[in-house]
Amino acid sequence: MLTKRIIPCLDVRDGRVVKGVRFTGLRDAGDPVEQAARYQSQGADEIVILDVSATPEGRATGIETVAALREVLSIPLTVGGGVRSVADAERLLGAGADKVAVNTAAVERPAILSELARRTGSQCVVLAIDAARQPGQSGWEVVTRSGVNRSGLDAVQWARDAQQLGVGEVLLTSWDRDGTGDGYDLELLGAMSAAVDIPIIASGGAAGSDHMLAAFQAGADAVLAASIFHDGINTVTDIKASLAAKNVEVRL
Amino acid sequence: MEPIVIVSTGVANIASVSAAIRRCGFDVELTDEAARVSDAERVVLPGVGSFEAGMECLRDRGLDSVIGDRVAAQRPLLAICLGLQLLCKSSEESLGVDGIGAIEADVRRVPVGMRVPQFGWNRVEVSEASAMESGYAYYANSFCIIDRPDGWTVATSTYGREFVAALVRGPVLACQFHPELSGTWGSQLIRRWLMREEVGSTC
Fold first, then answer.
1. Domains detected in chain B
2. How many Å apart are CA B54 and CA B5, to the nearest integer?
3. Which residues does chain B have within 8 Å of residue A119's beta carbon, measured at their own beta carbons?
4. Which residues of B touch A3 (CB under 8 A)?
5. How many domains does the structure of chain A reveal?
6. By the 8 A CB rule, do A79 and A100 touch?
7. Structure ipTM
8. Within an 8 Å CB–CB cutoff, is residue B38 touching chain A?
9. Do A222 and B120 touch (CB under 8 A)?
10. Per-residue pLDDT of chain A (252 residues; tens, 9 = 90+)
């Protein structure tokens, strides 16, 4: 049986892990290779790194960081941030990423998703969606450029369209919950899970294993978390043990 | 020590498998030359992307027949994911396209109703003696083999229904999962393939 994945996420800026609430107020939180290796030894199922500075400043994600991570990781590595073209994606895959996550560039030009899927295969293409509730409206709107821009796109419909374009997975971040510790947006996960057939990674708001359990019950295939692991409040090992005790199938 | 030869035909993502082999203490050499793939002591056939594109790349370079010959002669080969599928006769992914045909099996789509691709860690069960060990392996696939081909030791996993996780015959190891992304369990499997004549030989 396919197990539920626990994915630590490292937000990286200039080769260092950073932390912040809602993508702003960043502070230094360590060396990415050291941290990724630690999470791997704790039983992480996959590592995601997002270059949080890449899009606003127009820089590509650090190839050197990806290559250094690949040397130590024997688990999958997904890299996002600043992927603007097929060439960007190929550079990251060549350096050692197993999947690339595309966000802003896909909103601005959806055809990049089909180009990527054709060139690298769907299993290498992750659509990262930052979804935000809007006052007085139902549903969730896609926001981009680290939350600065509203796109006008409905997040669920956007994922459906992206699946048609060949995306292999959705990394779904709740803009409202990210960094708050209030738990994943379960309504958003439920709506997304019902709408697409590709796997969904829940992101934004986790403070512990109960939030993860709820996300799996709402339809997530994997859960991503950053701060709870960085702060040393929880290890991946502890989280997995708690989930296993609640009958969630995890890799132990 | 002779480097491990990795068949490299284009964009296929070989950084992970290269790193995994280097971690075992071996050098790697990337090639798309049929003569090199034929001569090398140990060959890895990775593969991502579609069945049709993969077969086209192999045929254009005459690699399909030399890889088929290696399997027939039971010379060391590690085929991964699409690499395993390319060894089969055909695939539902690309109807009408012939595979290498070294494995008497047809590749099927993952059952309807399951999320596709199958992304993540799935339990690999080994029931036959002298094969691989059971454990968790990382998968990223939309297609798989259902029927067990004759003449191979079979490991299985379940996703909607039981499918072939890996096939072993002497020093030929064909995996639907990615051993290079399967943590310590996968590293140990790669190491056994690198170090031994028979992957299935007991420790």
1. 4-195 (3.40.50.880)
2. 18
3. 11
4. 120-123, 136
5. 1
6. yes
7. 0.93
8. no
9. yes
10. 899 999 999 988 888 888 765 555 666 778 999 999 999 999 999 999 998 766 555 455 588 899 999 999 999 999 998 899 999 999 999 999 999 999 999 999 999 999 999 888 899 999 999 999 988 889 999 998 766 788 999 999 999 999 999 999 999 999 999 989 999 999 999 999 999 999 999 999 999 999 999 999 999 999 999 989 987 779 999 999 999 999 999 999
